């Protein structure tokens, strides 16, 4: 729990640094637009700082409750090995996903990653993994490709041809 609080505190300091540089480091860009280009990043940084502060508060409250119950020493390191193992598998999965995305494209690598990550998080229902992978890939594809006009990786060879086919739908 102390590690969670320390990480949150460091992230708050980093967000405050970014917010300070965003607010005072840029030139006067508000002349042409009252909101300016910094409105969205400022909103996100303030929201992140507030949520991190809430996380610290909830962690401190949970630590007090555990200490009062006398279970703090016993539960502090109970699942650390399993958490580190999941973290390592998550990092490996993300690396493979990023590597595969260029080779086989977004449309084919994203469902594989979503299904893998759901399995890693403990979901054993293949129907739920398949449905979630398909729906999340479709939603992300529509969001980035259609609404935000971001070109997504198509892959090479037959994967490129199939990705181009899906774009016509």
From TrEMBL:
Entry protein name: DUF1468 domain-containing protein
Keywords, ordered alphabetically: Membrane, Transmembrane, Transmembrane helix
Entry keyword annotation includes Membrane: yes
Source superkingdom: Bacteria
Sequence ranges assigned to domain DUF1468 in this UniProt record: 7-153
Keyword match Disulfide bond: no
Regions that span the bilayer: 7-27, 39-58, 92-118, 130-148
Pfam families: TctB
């Amino acid at each position: 729990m102390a590690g969670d609080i320390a990480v949150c505190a460091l992230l708050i300091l980093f967000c405050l640094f970014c917010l300070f540089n965003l607010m005072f480091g840029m030139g006067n860009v508000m002349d042409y637009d009252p909101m300016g280009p910094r409105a969205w990043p400022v909103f996100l940084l303030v929201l992140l700082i507030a949520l991190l502060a809430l996380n610290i508060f909830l962690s401190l409250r949970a630590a007090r409750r555990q200490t009062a119950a006398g279970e703090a020493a016993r539960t502090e390191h109970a699942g650390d090995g399993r958490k580190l193992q999941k973290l390592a598998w998550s990092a490996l999965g993300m690396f493979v996903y990023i590597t595969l995305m260029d080779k086989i494209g977004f449309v084919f690598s994203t469902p594989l990653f979503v299904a893998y990550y759901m399995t890693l998080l403990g979901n054993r229902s293949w129907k739920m993994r398949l449905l979630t992978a398909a729906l999340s890939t479709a939603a992300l594809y529509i969001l980035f490709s259609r609404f935000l006009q971001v070109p997504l990786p198509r892959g090479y060879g037959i994967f490129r041809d199939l990705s181009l086919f899906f774009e016509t739908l």
